[in-house]
């Protein structure tokens, strides 16, 4: 059994128009520091996601796919999960609890 190279990035607070660029910078540095096989976003402490935050996740998913990295989200708060479900992204993004 082979082990995958997994990079875990913890995000916190709200991912919205004010904070999405900070989240993007944090994730981009993790992707470029060492290209993992799996990029795991731990959203335990993310309390809110607006349309800009949704766009951030969709764009990040595409960016990861472009470089052969699997993006996974874990530990979504119920309100964040509801937003992703309402937009149909639960079936598109890889989500782990």
TrEMBL record:
Gene3D superfamilies: STAS domain
SUPFAM superfamilies documented for this protein: SpoIIaa-like
MF annotations from Gene Ontology: anti-sigma factor antagonist activity
Domain of life from the UniProt record: Bacteria
Residues of the STAS domain: 1-97
Any one Pfam family match given in the protein's UniProt record, by short name: STAS
NCBIfam families xref list: ant_ant_sig
PANTHER family, A to Z: ANTI-SIGMA FACTOR ANTAGONIST TM_1081-RELATED, ANTI-SIGMA FACTOR ANTAGONIST TM_1081-RELATED-RELATED
Similarity-based family: Belongs to the anti-sigma-factor antagonist family.
Listed name of the protein: Anti-sigma factor antagonist
Lineage: Bacteria, Bacillati, Actinomycetota, Actinomycetes, Jatrophihabitantales
């Amino acid at each position: 059994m082979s082990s995958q190279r997994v990079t875990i990035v913890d995000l916190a607070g709200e991912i919205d128009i004010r904070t999405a660029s900070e989240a993007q910078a944090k994730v981009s540095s993790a992707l470029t520091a060492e290209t993992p096989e799996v990029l795991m976003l731990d959203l335990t402490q993310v309390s809110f996601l607006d349309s800009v935050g949704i766009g951030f996740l969709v764009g990040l998913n595409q960016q990861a796919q472009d470089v052969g990295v699997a993006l996974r989200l874990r530990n979504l708060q119920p309100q964040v999960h509801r937003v992703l479900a309402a937009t149909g992204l639960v079936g598109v993004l890889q989500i782990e609890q």
